[in-house]
Design goal:
By secondary structure, the protein is α+β, with helices and mostly antiparallel strands. Among the domains are: 62 residues, Antifreeze-like/N-acetylneuraminic acid synthase C-terminal domain (Type Iii Antifreeze Protein Isoform Hplc 12), CATH 3.90.1210; 134 residues, no CATH class. The chain is built from 3 helices and 10 strands. Strands 3, 4, 7, 8, 9 and 10 form a 6-stranded antiparallel sheet that branches. A two-stranded antiparallel ribbon has the order 1-2. The longest helix is centred in the N-terminal third of the chain and has 29 residues. The radius of gyration is 36 Å and the shape is elongated.
């Protein structure tokens, strides 16, 4: 009986030890983090990209312009970036102030309407309406730099003669068309994309969508674009004259022409273009002038 009692006691102690170890393991698993399959702790802080300096409109963001700070989740903007690598190389589509959190809206190009326009000091804002042909396919966006190409047709430069009696006569048959890269280095403060005109059958036109696929086809649907430019007073006068009497095309520029290696805005030097007329095409570009061909008609036989 004594041996039997001892055996029962030992078995009881052994089972108690096993139960204790099992409970300890179970409780331990419930307090472990996500590495061991336990519940995930909700973070209270996150790394946040902030601007270390003012980042002007249209500037390509560099490493030196931004930094990373640990910030409380409640103080972060919902679309703020967490790593510098996510924003370096992107184009600022609005001014980013020093200390501001860098977020997705700072680089957004999907907006098709202007809100409040921040006109730079000493400049004026003027609207220019373009289409898919005259406006680089209507891909010009806020912060881009453009040149303005203006053409004047022959009727704007008539060649005249003055008779002895003082009468003025327009000489016909001469090509007086003139084209000039008239204004250079203007910045787009904002752009608007009105919906394309509805087809003649009354059905609503579908706007062209840029899917990011380089093989995607874009339809020539008459899409127009309103480009708001920051200009000097003199440039505003030139643009208005060209809108009244000329034909305007906008030419898209590389943004790197307007910032140095450190990302600071600079003024791009003028191109020095001289303009083009028919005479310039024949003298400077070797466009051949048609020659008069003389022909001898056969003599007619007399009756």
């Amino acid at each position: 009986m004594k041996r039997s009692n001892r055996l029962v006691l030992l078995v009881g102690v052994f089972l108690a030890v096993i139960a204790f170890v099992g409970i300890a393991l179970l409780l331990g698993n419930n307090t472990k983090g996500p590495e061991t399959g336990g519940p995930t702790a909700v973070p209270t802080t996150l790394p946040t990209v902030v601007a270390l300096q003012d980042i002007p409109l249209g500037v390509v963001v560099t490493q030196e312009m931004v930094g990373e700070q640990t910030m409380d989740v409640g103080a972060r903007r919902p679309t703020a970036f967490q790593a510098k690598s996510q924003v370096v190389g992107l184009v600022a589509r609005r001014v980013i102030k020093t200390g501001a959190q860098v977020e997705a809206a700072d680089f957004d190009t999907s907006s098709t309407s202007c809100g409040t326009i921040d006109v730079p000091t000493t400049l004026r804002a003027i609207a220019v309406q373009t289409d898919q042909v005259s406006g680089v396919g209507t891909v010009i966006n806020t912060g881009d730099y453009i040149d303005m190409l203006v053409g004047f047709t022959a009727d704007k430069f008539p060649v005249t003669t003055i008779g002895t009696d003082g009468t003025i006569t327009v000489v016909s048959g001469l090509n007086g068309t003139s084209v000039k890269l008239l204004l250079e280095g203007m910045q787009v403060l904002c752009r608007q994309l009105p919906p394309p005109a509805a087809p003649a059958n009354g059905q609503a036109a579908q706007p062209t969508q840029n899917t990011g696929n380089p093989n995607a086809q874009t339809s020539l649907n008459g899409q127009q674009e309103i480009v708001i430019l920051g200009v000097t007073p003199t440039q505003a006068e030139v643009i208005k004259f060209a809108q009244l009497d000329g034909s305007i095309s906008l030419v898209l520029r590389s943004r790197l022409d307007f910032q140095d290696a450190a990302g600071n805005p600079i003024t791009s030097p003028p191109s020095g273009s001289k303009g083009v007329t028919l005479k310039v095409l024949t003298t400077d570009f070797a466009v051949r002038i048609p020659e008069i061909v003389e022909g001898i008609l056969p003599a007619r036989s007399r009756p």
